[in-house]
From TrEMBL, chain A:
The keyword Plastid is annotated on this UniProt entry: no
Keyword tags: Pyridoxal phosphate
Protein name: Aminotransferase class V domain-containing protein
Lineage: superkingdom: Eukaryota
UniProtKB/TrEMBL annotation, chain B:
Matching PANTHER family: HERCYNYLCYSTEINE SULFOXIDE LYASE, L-CYSTEINE DESULFHYDRASE
Transmembrane annotation, as ranges: none
Pfam family, one: Aminotran_5
InterPro entries the UniProt entry points to: Aminotrans_V_dom, PyrdxlP-dep_Trfase, PyrdxlP-dep_Trfase_major
Keywords: Pyridoxal phosphate
Protein name per Swiss-Prot or TrEMBL: Aminotransferase class V domain-containing protein
Amino acid sequence: MKEFIFPSLILFGIISFVYPFGHSLLPLFSLDPSYININHGSYGSAPKYIHDKLREYQMKAEYNPDRWFRIEIQNEMNKLRNKLSKYVNCDPDDLVILENVSAGINSILRSLKFQSNETILYYNIAYGMVKLTLQYVSTEIFTQEQIIQIELDHQTIQNTDLLLKKTQEILNKLSNVKLIIFDHISSTPAVRFDIEKMIKFFRRKNILTIVDGAHAIGGIELNLKELDPDFYVTNTHKWLYTHRSSSLLYVKKDLQKFIHPIITSFGYLQSFQNEFFWLGTKDYSSYLTISDALDFRQTIANETEIFSYNHQLAIQAGNLLAQMWNSSVLISDEKYLSTMNNIELPFIIDTLDKMNILYQNLINKHNIFLPMFEFDKKFYCRISAQIYMELNDYQTVGHIVLNAISNMKFVPFLKKKNDYFRFV
Amino acid sequence: MKAEYNPDRWFRREIQIEMKNLQEKLSKYVNCDSSDIVILENASNGINTILKSIKFHSNETILYYNIAYGMVKLTLQYISSEILTPEQCVEIILDHQTIQNTDLLLKTTEDTLDKIKNVKLIVFDHISSVPSILFDVETMIKFFREKGILTLVDGAHAIGAIPIDLKKLDPDFYITNAHKWLYTHRSASLLYVKKDFQNLIHPIITSFGYLQPFQDEFFWLGTKDYSAYLTISDALDFRQTIANENQIYSYMHQLANQAGNLLAQMWNSSILTLDEKYISTMNNIQLPLTIDTLDKKDNLYKKLVNDYNIFLPMYEFDKKFYCRISAQIYMELNDYEKVGNIVLDIIFNRDPPPNTAQKKNISTILFISLILYVMQLY
């Protein structure tokens, strides 16, 4: 037995050394030490190392702006694309760096020419910006009937076969579906989809696929050659630790000639790469931190370990909160989760008003930002895991929510007092 | 760092307040209503926003001048191939005479207007890029307004170099880059849209502000780092610590004037504009007359960059070759004298480039590599 304990301790020591995840990593970031960030997924967070590198690039630009913008930046961006394309496994010429996924989605949807009889499909859980862009496109360019929503519920959202079956039902009623846009990892609720299967399904039917992978890179493994979408967008500042903000847009080679950036500038009528490079004067420094973010991750652990820690933590935190609140998690099978989880709020939160009051209360009185949403007639919140988080963080938040709710029991009484709080 | 401390609080609460304060401060600086301006990343964004928002009918025309900035011309080209027809974008040619005489310029414009119907909009510079000319946009805007033509003014070089009074100028659309002459961090710009037209203009990225008021529509354009925008406020403060605005404008304008005259004298050439009221903080000097072909101009440009670390923009206009110099508060006349001499050195093949540092570095690297290699053998 003794011979067993000692090596175990050593092994434990080694593991703690090799997997340093948790609060020990907090000092590497610039977050308020008293702030529990359970919403990393919205805006991301970059380590101090990244900000040092950002400053370096900015100072290089200031040292000799003409040299930076006319000569050096092209070399740096080429190197970056080569490095990034290895990380996501694609040809470096097939990806461009843009400011954010919103720019990528708008570039694609505004570039493609749709015939008057062609249809675009999307799911009800698509991100707000995507739906609004589709609305803009359908108002300004096409007719409203051509943009069709497919409804998913709590069953179809976590079962690829059922999802595709539901999709097929819609397809049977429509003709000339040109394009479908869907998430790799959706936002609210946060669900991870089996997009490899979905892409194959749509390709057999000759439907173009735009995959909104905003939450993907850095959260889960990304292999574009294997997935083979027509268009893919992902934000590097969400889960890859780059400086805000930068994103990747991938366009399949055959389709590159159809896609133009939303800003026309000096690259127009040149190659795909040139067209997307020059979009007016900008600070490219946040793009360049992509390279440093990849290096930073290597100093912490290897990619699989990072994915795994965040994934496991999201699952455990979800189960813990569901237990504390006597509710449930939305997704029963963990393969439909990435690094975020959706937990049903305590049952007393059963109207939109109550949900909003709780949300505001948590921000104003407890400095907790906990995204909440309604899905398929139930109210959920979304938590994000992260390498600097530990399970007890979510336990703390779980208690805070319960406290906040117990103070809300006197809702009719509080309704008057709320006006005071708004001015505070 | 504020954004990093608590990202949710920054993006969901604090940034709105900061941006509102900024807009109030900036609108006082350019004298307009704070709800009529929005902050965008750069002038390219602003130009694309306006030109791609407005619905042009198939019989309507857009006018522009030959000296318009390359990006503007390419955007018009994009629109005329993808959305309209090529005949709908018409160029007006200016030469060295019409470019520096508002009456002649408007006369030339009138000649074009007589031949074309249904002109909906004209794009023109406040201060053009190459060549760099300060136009009397107030007179021009009045001229076009009388004819019911929308005015899109590209004032990329304006803010921070010359006074801007948007109420007085009264354009329909105005764009200017704050990072060029206002000392803000790269990059931030201002887009002004006259109230009556705000409902027609949409940002090139549709996001959460869609179908809401103008201000909201242009605020949320995806996650971005707003810090560069916020430095506009600090840039205005910084300038106050140096001198008052008129002093800054005046120093740069005078320096541009003197530098231009000096170089013209050194090179035995001339400056493009006869009257200094047609330049702002930049000047256009004809290159020494031996530079008389595009090839020679390109060679001179490259040699200056590679051997002397000097970036001097050069261009052809109305059959002559010019360079453009910019004044700045950290520059003095002798800087331009140095550059003038370097250009002459190159042209007359005088002393070898003084900056052999690059060559020294390479030979040092080779030497050290050799030593290391030799050391390895042991």
